[in-house]
Amino acid sequence: MRRHLPLNALRAFEASARLLSFTRAGLELRVTQTAISHQVKQLEDMLGASLFRRLPRGLVLTDEGLALLPVLSDALDRIDAAIDRIEAKGTREVVTVGCVATFATGWLLQRIERFKRAHPYIDLRLLTNNNRVDIAGDGLDLALRFGDGSWHGTEAIHLLSAPLSPVCRPDVVDRLRKPADLAQEFLLRSYRAEEWPLWFAVAGAPCPKIQGPIFDSSVAMAEAAARGVGVGLVPVAMFENELTSGRLVRPFAAEVPAGSYWLTWLKSKDMTPGMRAFRDWMIETLRADAREAEEVRAAAPAQAPKVKAKSRTTAKAKVVRKRRVSLR
Question: Is it the case that residue 220 has pLDDT exceeding 90?
Answer without folding.
Answer: yes
